[in-house]
TrEMBL record, chains A, B:
This protein's encoding gene: purK
Organism in which the protein naturally occurs: Glaciecola siphonariae
Binding site for ATP: 93, 133, 138-144, 173-176, 181, 204, 258-259
Residues of the ATP-grasp domain: 97-288
PANTHER family membership: PHOSPHORIBOSYLAMINOIMIDAZOLE CARBOXYLASE (PTHR11609:SF5), PURINE BIOSYNTHESIS PROTEIN 6/7, PUR6/7 (PTHR11609)
Full protein name: N5-carboxyaminoimidazole ribonucleotide synthase
Domain of life: Bacteria
Entry keywords, A to Z: ATP-binding, Ligase, Nucleotide-binding, Purine biosynthesis
Length: 381, 381
């Protein structure tokens, strides 16, 4: 069987590697060059996107910002999973907030800003600490603005005056404090079966995911249940087929949805070594109508992103349970180059392995790793 | 980095899939068509074998019967691992017996037959129950002849008279009874480090491997040590770099080497799901000079070959711990089409999963599976 993936980055690559043992061929679409390629060796296939769409059994996406004409073509073929509306919900914060609100799923207090004149009302409703987020990928990478105190409001108004807020509104979110960021990743199949992986605990630095630990430490039964309910409500509301990721803020036993990603997700890479079925195989199973796989965790796993860095020792793979996944991309600042999965039998052992791992890594690129290692070591078995 | 594999079957395919996460590209040589291809999608690269040999970092083989001119070219490049002599030792039973005998490694009593007139001496030395094996892949697939009683000797002499025994001698082996067949698979790197996987227990039917269980049941410390010593002696004697498989007959605590395979091996496929590092990644690590990976087993695993059969339900992957590996080949009688790995926490649970698995399989193609399931279920935890 054949699957076409919109997007030809590392997520399509890992889908390819996970699909091959099932006898499933993965073709990827470079949506910029508009070419069909092999996502592993990047060789070009001599076929048009139109032909590929007609030839494959299923079409899916590795990212949500797929040009709408392509999504449209795929949707019309009847082969697109998840469906176009679900993908666009992940690509548009206004749609996302609408889905969350209409399904009574707790998320950050927010208002939609589609005119500079909305700003005063936003401050009145949300307070003076606000994050403004572009609702779509529409401002050439400029996506977020922070208001820390209301004195800076005029400056912000001035900045926003040059944006086409009617076309790409902003979502104004109240800045909240929370204990930690977690994510729940799972799959829903065409019959409505839902199957989640254990919750991952995610550490970010300068807006990028650096480390995930799964299963997350100290997850109460209430939080686990709540997260799974949020996942299921969302997946059902979106009539979702495939792997879906939900990022959450946790404060005590309270969960707020931060954002959703209609795809396999960086915070699920740990499943490659830490779960019976990995998220990539699970996605392929779900979209092709195969039975979902078991998601049980095997030990405890840390996933460490390698960001903008090639100057590490590959000998890190000498550490038992330590596996490298290299994407083969040219290095650029802030670019995700690969990741490392480290599996252990206990959090303590995992922490010790992370300290060992640091001997092979330039710590300036892995600024959160030592602290996380020490935190894990201190956890009672 | 790039690795060229002589042979483009499922072993090269699985090397490709295991190498990609390390940032290693695998190119395969179809030694019949003399083409360089991608072993997963079988697409042809526009390069000659000579160019590939000069371009890659390392050359290896997925089978021992590589045409000698290719091995020669690779050996001369200085990039061939394992070395040519080691590969040829696996391809020639006379060389193999020589290596075993000169290194005092126990194997079946045997004589070399290079003339029909040697047959009487063979019967005298080995008794009337003998297996004659072609020493090399030289008789168009005809490789084995059995003598059950000496009355059939004239018939055999007549058959052998038409063979060019000078060019391709036979190895006459005494037919022995033994308790079971096991194999030990491991790797040796350029520094001489040796690292073995747990012993696998192998069930054959009509000359083909049907089921492997690893770690093998009831392995005494003496047997484990003996198997590892045999492995290390052989790997050192061959100055071996890469993954090597040694098939053994076990009787009580006594081990005899049946044959060696200078490559990744079917009885090591269980490591894909049952060991920290799989044999394919381990081979890539060894030949490229990367650190060897941890070989610790994770639970207990059964590997079931799918032979000459496509009429099974793919829904078998709904069983927790059950994973399919499909090679994507056209079906032929006796052809290995794929395999299934089933991982469990105990032999009993593994046996129960195998019974469950049988619900998805046509039993006439998996004739040993029910018995093996029942045997495993009866094992005390």
């Amino acid at each position: 069987m054949k699957v076409l993936v919109f997007g030809a980055g590392q997520l399509a690559q890992m889908m390819y590697l996970a699909a091959a043992p099932l006898g499933v061929e993965v073709y990827a679409v470079d949506v910029v060059a508009r070419e069909v390629i092999n996502p592993v060796d990047k060789s070009k296939f001599d076929m048009s996107i139109e032909y590929a769409v007609s030839d494959v059994h299923v079409i899916t996406a590795e990212f949500e910002h797929v040009p709408e004409d392509l999504l449209d073509m795929a949707e019309k073929s009847g082969k697109l999973h998840p469906n176009m509306a679900a993908i666009l919900t992940g690509a548009d914060r206004v749609r996302e907030k609408y889905v969350l609100d209409t399904n009574n799923i707790q998320n950050c207090p927010h208002l939609i800003v589609s005119d500079v004149s909305d700003l005063d009302a936003a401050v009145q409703a949300l307070g003076e600490k606000i994050i403004f987020k572009a609702s779509r990928d529409g401002y050439d990478g400029y996506g977020q603005w922070r208001l820390i105190n209301s004195e800076e409001l005029p400056k912000l108004k001035h900045a926003f005056a040059s944006l086409d807020l009617k076309r790409v509104p902003l979502v104004a979110e109240k800045m909240l404090s929370f204990d930690r960021e977690i994510s729940i990743i799972g799959a829903r199949d065409a019959k409505g079966n839902v199957c989640c992986f254990d919750i991952a605990e995610n550490l970010h630095h300068e807006g990028q995911l650096h480390v995930s630990v799964a299963p997350a430490t100290a997850v109460s039964a209430a939080v686990q249940k709540q997260a799974e309910q949020i996942f299921e409500t969302l997946a059902n509301a979106l009539n979702y087929i495939g792997v879906l990721a939900v990022e959450l803020f946790q404060s005590g036993d309270e969960l707020l949805v931060n954002e959703i990603a209609p795809r396999v997700h960086n915070s699920g890479h740990w499943t490659q070594k830490g779960a019976d079925t990995c998220q990539f195989e699970q996605h392929i199973r779900a979209v092709l109508g195969f039975p979902l796989g078991d998601t049980a965790s095997k030990g405890v796993t840390a996933m460490i992103n390698i960001i903008g860095c090639t100057s590490f020792s590959r000998d890190l793979i000498s550490i038992p349970g330590c596996h490298l996944h290299w994407y083969g991309k040219e290095v650029r600042e802030k670019r995700k180059m690969g990741h490392i999965n480290v599996v252990a039998d206990s959090y303590r052992e995992l922490g010790e392995k992370l300290l060992l791992l640091l001997q092979y890594l330039p710590e300036e690129y892995f600024v959160l790793l030592r602290g996380e290692a020490q935190r894990l070591i201190a956890i009672e078995a």
